[in-house]
Amino acid sequence: MSSDSEKYWYNLTTGEVEKGFESPAIDRAGPFDTREEAAAAPQLLRERSRAWAEEEAREDG
């Protein structure tokens, strides 16, 4: 198992994939095991956000 400093991160500010802790934590999403997974972070974040919103709506409804 590699440490998070060796994994990939998606930079929310620049939209670029980074390896390790290149940017402040507030600007990063991750960690991801591969560069490809990190590059797909925007889609993953949208899907998770939609699922959480739907779950909250069901609980409130």
Task: Give your account of this protein's structure.
Residues 21-61 are annotated as: Disordered. With 61 residues, the protein is α+β, with helices and mostly antiparallel strands. The protein has one domain (4-60). 41% of the residues lie in helices and 20% in strands. It has helices spanning 35-39, 41-60; strands spanning 8-11, 17-19, 28-32. Strands 2-1-3 form a three-stranded antiparallel sheet. The model has no long low-confidence stretch (mean pLDDT 95).
Briefly characterize the structure:
The protein is an alpha+beta fold. It has helices at residues 35-39, 41-60; strands spanning 8-11, 17-19, 28-32. The protein has one domain.
- Give the proportion of residues in helices: 40-55%
Shape: elongated
Question: CA-to-CA gap between the ends?
Answer: 42 Å
In the sheet with the most strands, the strands line up as 2-1-3
Number of domains: 1
Query: Radius of gyration from the CA trace?
Result: 14 Å
Helix run count? 2
Which helices and strands appear, and what pairs or packs with what?
Layout: E1 8-11, E2 17-19, E3 28-32, H1 35-39, H2 41-60
Tags for this model:
elongated; three-stranded antiparallel beta sheet; single chain; 61 residues; alpha+beta; 2 helices; SPOR domain-containing protein
